Amino acid sequence: MAEPIPALPQSYAPGLDSVFSDQLGFYSIDSNVPGLSKVILEKLNMKDYGDYRKAMEGKTRGATFHSHKEMFDKMEDTFKFCAACKKLPAHLPDPKALKRCIKCLNLYYCCKECQKSDWPLHKKFCKKLRLVAIDRLVEWLISTGDLPFPTQTWTRPAAEINSWEDWLAMQGDLAPRMEPILSGKNMTELWKSVSRARPEDNDLRESMWRVCTEFLSRPLTIGLGIKLFNLDPYSRPLTIHVVGAAHSETLGARVTDMDELSNMFPGHQGLEVVMVGPEVVEGKAIRPPLKQFGPRAKSYISGYRGLYHQFWEDVVEKGEAAKPDLVVGFHPGFHATQSLGEGWLPTLLLLRDYEVPSMFTMFNESEYELSLQILLELEMHIKATGVNPFRAQKPEQVQACPNKPPVYCNWHYICFQGLLEREELEEAEGGEGEAEQA
Known about the structure:
Blueprint (H helix, E strand, L loop, with lengths): L20 H12 L3 H8 L5 H8 L11 H10 L21 E2 L7 E2 L2 H11 L3 H13 L1 H4 L20 H8 L3 H8 L2 H9 L7 H28 L9 E6 L3 H4 L8 H6 L6 E7 L21 E7 L2 H9 L9 E5 L7 H16 L4 E5 L2 H13 L2 E8 L24 E8 L2 H16 L1
Parallel strand pairs: 3-4, 3-6, 4-5, 6-7
Antiparallel strand pairs: 1-2, 7-9, 8-9
Helix pairs in contact: 4-10, 6-11
């Protein structure tokens, strides 16, 4: 990049400019494909990471494109590097030498030798990466308002809906809701603007379904947390804080984004979801948190840009926002680096010491195991863990290292509340000692 991101110090007091997860993403990208982060920024018409942050914070105008074709072409350019040798087009004698895998239309190779050497690994993921390539284009229909398709009020109690299969059986035939999108002008414009043939209609229906599950996974995961902690939205209003909220949850957020919670608990007393995090992006849905709850049977979204423990001290403790009945973190990433860990530590200790019912989700099993280890080291009382029955069905490619098992939004979850009782902690430690002696 024009101005390299400075190395993070080993220890410091975390501030708003030191805990951005997208900054970690740029490091990760360049560690796998040197120079790729610069390509991404150039395609967004930005010179460095500082420009990116300013755009995300609304201080400057974001990327602008003259046409949909230009937008999709530049997006595809950010995936153009040799999957085998990691070379970018600018590092090749002929920048046009990169050719796509004809099966997945996702990965690129600079020569036949690289493609041949990579095939034993790529063949394990080729079919799945084909879905990824379709989904990242169909996902554009969320920004146009075509997706998610309309959903209906639940006709069965939330306690009886324990999987996507249950949800689909209750929702009934989705075809009448999908067909207008499939034949609509935006779907037509999408495939007219990209440099590949339009997939079969059935492939597009399945892609729309996968993209919608990622969107719906957030409210359904919150609903799962409400059930796991035995909270009753029919007896009183509930306040849910989404801690560590980033631009992935707030960029372009709509006031209707959590309406599936109202479908899930029809006639509830009121549900407020407060997005809190240093990467919260201003928008229509990011309003001040409520002091007193609003209309019955409505889901209300609000937001606060800042670290969660600061929000608690500056807003919650002063009575300007309700204390949470549940805190949810979607892929908090506190396991990833020391800097993020230090940014998260005050929040984790706050949640523990105030005994706030909390639920965090993870992308994959590795993240789940590392996160669980950290929470146990903090002596958190773990209430429940497992594979989320409402994880997204849309596979996510690790952009700079695609030949890896894909990850899925909200794949695993960990529920915790308060401090582990000393007796339980001693029993756990005693059990470990006996096992070691054996």
